[in-house]
Amino acid sequence: MSGALGSVFGVDRQLIRDQTYFVIEQSQQVFACGGWSKRESLFGSDTARLKNDALLDPLHHAARIRAFFVHPAWARRGMARAILHACEEAIRAARFSRIELVATLPGVPFYRAFDYKSHETYEVPLVNGLSLPVVRMTKNLGNANE
What domain count does the chain have? Predict the structure, then answer.
């Protein structure tokens, strides 16, 4: 996993600039974070994001769930669920009717529990010559654009 730090797993400041990133913190310590994007990049940090990270059209594209992390000491306490619900509400408000994400293998059961469907498994090449297996997943929110 250390080979994914900085490229696949890392800060994507565009989510912060777009105000689509959520954190749960206590005493200025972040325990969980995650967000959504209205841009083309499906995953990646500042250095790995698509160069042309254009805004998506809610009528034709799926919003992206992005960059979910929970500190291991705070796992299984509902933090990721709370952030995912906040993301889905914001995505609906932005008039998207579909969501797409790329999950690491440990995240797949979490997203499946919230009706995300698996579509394909593939490998993301890492800087150290290794690769990270991931799963592309989607969720249909219904007819949010009507």
Answer: 1
Dihedral sign for Cα atoms in the order 80, 105, 113, 53? positive
Q: List all residues 6 or more positions away from 75 whose beta carbon is below 8 Å from its beta carbon.
A: none
Residue 30 structural domain: 2-99
C-alpha distances out from residue 61 to 46, 86, 97, 113, 145, Å = 22, 20, 8, 23, 12
Phi and psi at residue 145, to the nearest 5°: -90, 5
**pLDDT tens digit string along 10-28?**
677 888 899 999 999 989 9
Residue 25 lies in a domain: yes
As a whole number of angstroms, the distance between CA 56 and CA 114 comes to: 23
